[in-house]
Amino acid sequence: MKLKRTFSEISLLTITLALFVIMYGAGVLFYGFRISTFLNLFNDNAYLIVATTGIFFVLLTGGIDISIGSVVAFTCVFSAWLLEKGFSAGFVIPLVLLIGLAFGSLQGFLIVKFDLQPFIVTLAGLFFMRALCSVISKAAIAIKNPFYLKVALAKIRFTLGRQHPKIYFYALFAVAVVLGTAFILKFTKFGRTVYAVGGSEQSASLMGLPVKRTRVMVYGLSGFCASLGGVIYSLYTLAGYSLQNVGMELDAISSAVIGGTLLTGGVGSIFGAAIGVLIQGLIQTVVTYQNLNTWWTKVTVAALLCLFIIIQRAMSVNGEKARKNRLIKAA
Amino acid sequence: MEILQKYRRARIFWPSVIFLGILLFNTIISKGEFLSITMMDGHFYGRLVDIFRNGSKLMLLAMGMTFVIASGGIDISVGSVMAISGAIACSVIRGNLFPFFQGSVFFALVLAVAAGALCGAWNGFLVSRVRIQPMVATLILMVAGRGIAQLITNGKIITVNSPSYYFINGGYILGLPFPLYLVIILFAGLLFFTKKTAFGLFLASSGINDKSSRLAGIRVENIKLLVYVFCGAAAAGAGLIESSGIKGADCNNAGLMIELDAILSVAIGGNLLTGGRFSLGASICGALIIQSITTTIYAMGVPPEVIQLVKALLVITISLIQSEKLSIKLLPAKAAAQ
Q1: C-alpha dist (Å) from residue B179 to B17, B187, B241
Q2: Is residue B85 within 8 Å of B153, Cβ to Cβ?
Q3: Distance of alpha carbon B276 from alpha carbon B274, whole angstroms
Q4: What are phi and psi of A256, to 5 degrees?
C-alpha cells in the first residue's frame, strides 16, 4: 500500500515536471524565452508560492481554505493604510503577519471545535476580509515607505554574455519558504502528523497524534502564509487595493493540485506545488506574449485544474481496482 | 387551530416571523410610510413592492441553492453564471453572437438559460461523476466563469436597446412587477414537484446519507446532476433579471459576491448547511429577510461594505447555532433527551 502511494505521488510529480519542461521548451522555441524569463517566473509569482505553501498544509489534512485571496488583499490594503498614516515598517509587518495568523487560527478553531464545514467558515472569512478591505479604503493606496521601497528593489544581478537577468530578494525569500516547508514536512513531528491526519484522521487519532491541534495549526499556518504572501505582494506592487487578488484561492489550490496534491488529503509534495505555481506563471507569460485578454489565464488555469483532478481521479480508481484484484487473488 | 399548530412546527415559522418583525420595525421607524403603496399609471409603487422586486433575483438563486445544499453540496459559481447569462443574452440581442437569430429576444433568453443549465451540468458532472468536492468543483466555474463572460463580451460592457428585454425586470402585469411572477410560478411548480413526487424525498435522502440512499436504490448521481443543472438555470434567470435591470451586461459586477447572499438565504431559512431535509418556502423567506435588511440598512445610510461584514458574521453565527457540538455544550439536557 505504501509502495503504491509513493508510486502515484512520484508519477503525478513527473507529469507536472514534464509539463513544465515541455511548456518552457516550447516557450524557448516559439517565443525566445531567456534566463530572465525563468527568473521572472519567481519574481512575479513569489507571493503565490508563499500563499500556496500555506494552503498546501490545509489541503494535506483534507481541508480547504478559500479565504487566502482576501487575506492577501487585506494585508496589502491594511499595511498600505498604516504606512500612509506614518507607522514604521518594523511595526506594520509583524502586526499584519500576526493578524493573518490569528485570523487563520480562528477559522481553524471554529472548524475543529464546533465541527463546522471548512468551506462555509472560510467562505465567510473570504467575504469578511474582502469587506474589511473596502471598509478601510475603496481607493488604491500607494506605499511610499522608504524601507518598503528599499526591500522591494533589493535584487541580485547576474551577467551572462549580453543578458542581465535579475532575481529579487523577495523571490529568494519565497524559495527559502519552500525549502523550509519541505524540511518541516519531512523532519518534524508536526509535518509527519499533517500527513498522517490527511491519510486517515481516525487512524491518526488512534495512534495518539494530536489531530485537533494539528488541524487548527494548519489553518493558522495558512492564514500566516497568506499574510506573508500579502507582504510580498505589497512589495511587488507597492500599493494596496481592495479588489486585488480576487480568485487567488483558485490559483493556489490549482497550483497544489497540478503539483500532485490530492484534494482528499494525505498525498502531495511542496516542490510539486511550487512547480504548479511556475506552470501558471508560464501560462500568464504566454498570454502576455500573445497579447491576449488576461482572462484567458484564468480560463486556462481552470481547465488545467479540471484535467489534473480527472487524471488523479482516474489514477485512484485504477489503484483501488488493482487493490481489489490483489485482495481477490489473495483470498 | 390545528393549522396554526402545524405552522408553528414548520421550518418556515421562525423565518417568516423574523421577516414580519423586520417589516414591522421598518414601519415603525418610518412612521407608516414604509407600508404605503401608491398606484401610478396602473402600477403599484412602494418600498414593499421594491423589496419583492429587488429580492426576486435572490429568491430565484435561493431556490436553486436550497436544492444543491439539500443534496449535501454547494454551488459558489452562481454569480459567475449570472454574468455569463447576461453576457450571452445581451450579445445575442445586439447580434454579436449568433447573428442568424437577428437579435431575437426570445432566442436570447432561451440561449442564456440553456447556457446556465449547461454550466450547472458541468458542475453536476464534476460533483456527481468525477466526485470532486462541490466546493472545488464550483470554485472552478466561479473564477473561470467570469473569464468566459468577459471573453463572450470581449471585455466590454454591452448595452442593449430593447423594450421587450427591459420588461423582464421593469415590466408590470396587473400592477405587480414581472420578476415576482417568475418567482411565484417557479416556486409553485417546484413545490408541486417536490411534494407530489418522490423527488423531494430522494433529494433529502441523498443529502443525509448518499451511500445508504444508493443502496436503497436511489440514483443519487442523477439527482445530484439534476439539482446542479437546475441551480445553473435559476442563476441564469437571475442573471437575466439583473442584466435587464441595468439594460446591459457588466461581466465584472454582475452577481458579484451574491453567492454568499444565496447561501445565507438558505441558512437563515433554517435549512441545514450539511444537507438533508429542506424547505423551499423557508429559503424564500430567508431571501426576503436579507433583501429587507439590505433595504433597511441602505435607507439608514450605512455604507454597503459594512453590510457584507455583517452578512459574513451572520453566516458564521447561524452555522454555530446549527452546530450539534455547540448545542450539546449549551443544552446538555436537550441533547440527552434526543
Answers
A1: 24, 12, 7
A2: no
A3: 7
A4: -65, -45
| A247 contact residues in B (CB cutoff 8 A) | 142-143, 146
Q: What is the pLDDT of residue A3?
A: 44
Structural domain includes residue B330: no
Adjacent-strand bridge partners of B39: B44
B258, closest residue in chain A (CA to CA)? A127
Q: Report yes or no: B33 at the A interface, CB cutoff 8 Å.
A: no
Residue B249 is which amino acid?
A
Query: Tell me: the pLDDT tens digits for B138-189?
Result: 988 988 898 899 889 888 888 888 888 888 888 888 878 889 999 999 999 9
- What average pLDDT does range A47-75 have in this prediction? 94
Q: Cβ contact (<8 Å) for A309 and B274?
A: no
Domain around B170: 11-30+44-319
Q: Is B28 exposed, middle or buried (0-12, 13-18, 19+ CB in 10 A)?
A: exposed
- The total number of residues shown for chain B amounts to 338
pLDDT at A8 exceeding the cut of 70: no
d(CA A240, CA A159): 33
What was the ipTM of the complex prediction? Answer: 0.78
Angle at A240 between CA A235 and CA A243, to 5 degrees: 130
Q: CATH for A2-326, among 1.10.3470, 1.10.357, 3.30.1360, 3.40.390?
A: 1.10.3470
Min Cα separation B118/chain A (Å): 16
Distance from CA of A29 to the nearest CA of B (A): 28
- For chain A, the structural domain boundaries read 2-326
Question: Is the CB of residue B320 less than 8 Å away from at least one CB of chain A?
Answer: yes
In a domain, B325, yes or no: no
Q: B124 vs B73, B119, B238, CA distance in Å? A: 10, 9, 19
Average pLDDT, chain A: 88
